[in-house]
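pasting for ref
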Amino acid sequence: MRVYNFLKTYAGATYSFIASLCSIASLVLLFINSKLACIVALSVFCFGLLILLYGIMRGIGKMIKDNSKDDYKRIASFFSFQSSDGVKSTFEVFRMIQSKRLFLTEIPYNFKWTGSTPPKLSSRSQTITNVKYNPDKNQWDEATIRFPQPLKRKITINR
């Protein structure tokens, strides 16, 4: 039932157009018995399927875009700071996020390091790339966190 409601909402107009076009084409091709008529009928059918697929993809994109302007939603964050000798320290960040896109492959991570030597950024489950340190103390340092597999958005349609 959810799939039907989704198709009705986002692909209904496209489906109606395709159905009308196919009806007219089939009426015309009913009286023509040739190889050309079969090719035209198959072409119209394939074209109709492409238009329907485009309507569905456009509907999914519109639904997700309308739902959130951000790529992901921050659910919770946990921080841990440890220093056993007063010189070397470990700062751990744990985040729980929810993807707001169909597929989320990476997220930006902003931080500010004030130490004299650059920190070592690492993760057991993600890859950290594009680390950029900004010398301006009023601007964030940046990094990109890449997921080993894209986060997928679970799509639910409310009636």
